[in-house]
Write a structure and sequence with these properties.
Elements (H helix, E strand, L loop, with lengths): L1 H7 L6 H24 L1 H9 L6 H30 L2 H18 L8 H23 L2 H4 L5 H32 L4 H26 L9 H4 L2 H13 L5 H32 L3 H29 L1 H21 L3 H29 L5 H29 L4 H19 L4 H9 L3
Helix pairs in contact: 2-8, 2-9, 2-12, 3-4, 3-9, 4-6, 4-11, 4-16, 5-6, 5-9, 6-16, 8-9, 8-13, 8-15, 12-13, 12-15, 12-16, 12-17, 13-14, 13-15, 14-15, 14-17, 15-16, 16-17
């Protein structure tokens, strides 16, 4: 067992520290599962906005605004965190912010559209900052040849956290619906559940996860100005990291499609296929099981068959998912599409995070993951906003919108062919 750990983890890294790192994925997955995917998204469109024609677009626009804020801020915050060795401190602040604003979503009732938008924007910004910062610890923990499997451990464990928050929420929903309560009465309780699971689970991360980076000298670290100059220098030297840049372009394309699934799966299931809210929650719960298995299995497989090939296979699966979802007219058919989507979701997100870590210079981990987050959040604007515009412009034709989403995964596959894994890794190793 000790030898196996030595083959996977960097010297000095203990297994409990990897567990603590994975616990953050466990903690924050409830936010995406309950708030963005299964519960609050459909609640916002159907109850808060009362099913208005502009409701889906308002939801996607709110998410897009939050992602734009993250795009503009995270690369700089990453550069600053590297210079100050402050990843863990910033992670703590972002966690507190997301927990508090998620709990505050419990105050969003029918008609409170503005309050809902403000809180969704804030909570998603805090969530996204934390997601980027915790990812920057991955190359400090895992050896290069094991980045895929360790990333997969985190993603698969994360989906278990999402299932915990969703399972507890589902129990409340079923109980309250049986008692004759409305969504405006039981959805706020699910926001409290999500916030508590996030906050309590994340405590493990802050107890055991270490900040291994060392700050530069006060003169060398500088302040905000030097962090900006460091970030500008990285963009200026983009040719040196061209495989990382191709990977970011690929991520913008395929993560746009993933973002559609996260933001709009519940809305599509309920408004197009005809799922009831509790059926949607069960669907997302099962989707998380498939995603956990996909992340775990593909994480190990990725290290064996190669990062690019593994990611490419998941993109093919995503295309199949979109086509199936667009043409099916039955709940059973949609269940099949959702199962494939779950496997592809866990594996594609884990594979991308590991590949980004392989291309990141050791002294600039938070900065490069900040750039990675820039690409992911740009995708999160392009995907849902495109979907929202198509549905709005076609009088609510969500089938056409989900079919158009398949094109995003095709574009991602094409851009992935430009990535040379060995060349990208060498550029990271030889970075001064």
């Amino acid at each position: 067992m000790a030898r196996q750990a030595a083959d996977v983890l960097n010297p000095g890294v203990r297994r409990r520290e990897v567990f603590a790192w994975a616990m953050y994925d466990f903690a924050n997955s409830g936010y995406t599962t309950v708030v963005l995917t299964a519960v609050f998204s459909a609640y916002f469109v159907g109850v808060v906005a009362d099913g208005a024609p502009w409701a889906t677009f308002a939801w996607t626009a709110s998410l897009s605004l939050s992602y734009a804020i993250v795009m503009l801020s995270m690369p700089f915050l990453g550069a600053w965190a590297d210079r100050r060795a402050a990843k863990k401190r910033l992670l703590a602040l972002s966690t507190i912010g997301c927990v508090l604003t998620t709990a505050a979503l419990s105050q969003v009732g029918p008609g409170a559209v503005v309050l809902g938008i403000v809180l969704i924007v804030l909570s998603n910004v805090f969530y996204s900052w934390g997601e980027s910062l915790v990812a920057a610890f991955l190359p400090e923990l895992a050896q290069p040849q094991a980045l895929g499997r360790v990333s997969g451990w985190g993603w698969s464990f994360g989906y278990l956290g999402g299932m915990l928050a969703l399972g507890l929420s589902l129990m409340v929903v079923l109980r309250d619906k049986a008692a004759g309560l409305s969504a405006a009465q039981f959805v706020p309780k699910t926001m409290w559940i999500t916030a508590v699971v996030f906050g309590v689970s994340a405590l493990v991360t802050f107890v055991w996860l270490k900040e291994r980076a060392r700050p530069l000298t006060e003169e060398g670290a500088g302040g905000f100005g030097k962090a900006w100059r460091q970030l500008h220098a990285t963009f200026r030297e983009a040719r040196r990291y061209r495989d990382f840049m191709w990977l970011m372009a690929c991520a913008v394309a395929y993560q746009a499609g993933v973002a559609v699934t996260i933001a709009l799966a519940a809305i599509y299931a309920e408004q197009v296929i005809g799922f009831a809210q509790q059926e949607t929650m069960v669907l997302i719960f099962v989707l998380n099981i498939a995603a956990a298995l996909g992340a775990f299995v593909f994480g190990h497989w990725q290290d064996r068959i190669g990062h690019r090939r593994a990611l490419g296979l998941t993109l093919v699966g995503w295309v199949l998912t979109c086509v199936m979802a667009a043409v099916t007219t039955t709940k059973g058919g949609f269940w099949y599409a959702a199962a494939i989507a779950g496997v592809c979701m866990g594996s594609s997100q884990s594979a991308g995070r590991a590949l980004a870590g392989l291309f990141a210079p050791p002294a600039q981990l938070a900065e490069f993951y900040g750039l990675w987050t820039f690409a992911i959040r740009l995708a999160s604007i392009v995907g849902p906003l495109t979907y929202g515009l198509i549905t709005w412009g076609t009088g609510g034709n969500q089938r056409l919108a989900i079919l158009a989403t398949a094109g995003m995964f095709v574009a991602g596959w094409v851009l992935l062919q430009k990535v040379d894994v060995e060349r990208g890794r060498q550029a990271a190793i030889t970075a001064s």
